[in-house]
Every structure is written in structure tokens, then in C-alpha cells.
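Many introductory courses stop at the sequence. We go one step further.
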Amino acid sequence: MKDEKLQCFICNHQDNTGIALLNQFICSRCERKIVNTSPSQIKYQLFKEKIKLLWAR
């Protein structure tokens, strides 16, 4: 059986490993980036805004 690739809500990358958050897929690469990003980093705001979009759905 062929593994289905899902589109990451954060980066739009096609992958088959990651997590589902509020019925949206987040690839393992973005998951690691989110977990390891400090609030003082600029990309923290990007992740924060993307996750806010999940709640608005």
C-alpha cells in the first residue's frame, strides 16, 4: 500500500509524517521548528499567526 502524502498547513510541503491539529496536518519538520522556536525569534510570530488561522476555521 502506498503512503498518502498530506499537505502541511504551515509550509504546504507534501509529507506523510506529522501531526493533526484541529483537523489540519502539520508536517514533522514544521512540528520540530515550532517546538524549538523561541518567542524572541522572528519566525515565532509566523507560527503564531498560522496557528491562529486554525482556530478561526
